[in-house]
Design goal:
With 110 residues, the protein is an all-alpha fold. Helix content is 80%, strand content 0%. The chain is globular and about 40 Å long.
Length: 110
């Protein structure tokens, strides 16, 4: 796991990041950073990295529904992209990052 994602997870756990929307945004940020800085060479490695971070984030606030829903949406989308895509790793990462931005915008509106 990358250092920036670990710091975000620590901050959520230590309540330095509070409020449902802020926690959800931080979770998205941690996944986005992981995706951008991933050195995964295979789709399976990429999915494993994203799952590791998503699990760590979800464990910080297990009763936070907004966070849980956003993580579910992102991981579901990533799984579909990874499983069904014939795209290059770079294009696939871009598409997942675009979906994260879409979810981020939804989060900002609520």
């Amino acid at each position: 796991m990358i250092d920036e994602a670990e710091k975000i997870i620590r901050d959520i756990r230590a309540l330095r990041i509070q409020g449902a929307r802020n926690v959800a945004k931080a979770g998205i940020r941690a996944l986005t950073l992981t995706l951008k800085k991933s050195r995964a060479k295979t789709r399976e490695e990429l999915y494993g990295e994203l799952m590791e971070v998503a699990y760590a984030i979800s464990e910080t606030r297990p009763t936070e529904p907004m966070l849980r829903n956003i993580l579910d949406d992102l991981i579901r989308f990533a799984a579909m992209e990874i499983a069904s895509s014939e795209k290059s790793m770079q294009k696939m990462k871009k598409d997942i990052a675009d979906e994260e931005r879409t979810i981020w915008k939804k989060c900002r509106r609520t």
